[in-house]
TrEMBL record:
<protein>
    <recommendedName>
        <fullName>Antitoxin Xre/MbcA/ParS-like toxin-binding domain-containing protein</fullName>
    </recommendedName>
</protein>
<dbReference type="Pfam" id="PF09722">
    <property type="entry name" value="Xre_MbcA_ParS_C"/>
</dbReference>
<feature type="domain" description="Antitoxin Xre/MbcA/ParS-like toxin-binding">
    <location>
        <begin position="14"/>
        <end position="63"/>
    </location>
</feature>
<dbReference type="InterPro" id="IPR024467">
    <property type="entry name" value="Xre/MbcA/ParS-like_toxin-bd"/>
</dbReference>
Amino acid sequence: MKIAHIDKEVREKLLELFADEQISEEWITTPKVIFNGLSPLEVLASEQGKTKVLDAIQRITYGDFS
């Protein structure tokens, strides 16, 4: 999976956070507790998915790993 195929804003935020495409791809395809066991990529397919994924990225950016 290439992150080039995901939402532009999400992709940019991931690359800002991780500064590495491979790590960004790994993060977006790995299931997360915060998303009830879904991957961020799966969450993006939902109606409010982009907002939820961007919120998670922002929380990580500011050190909130809960």
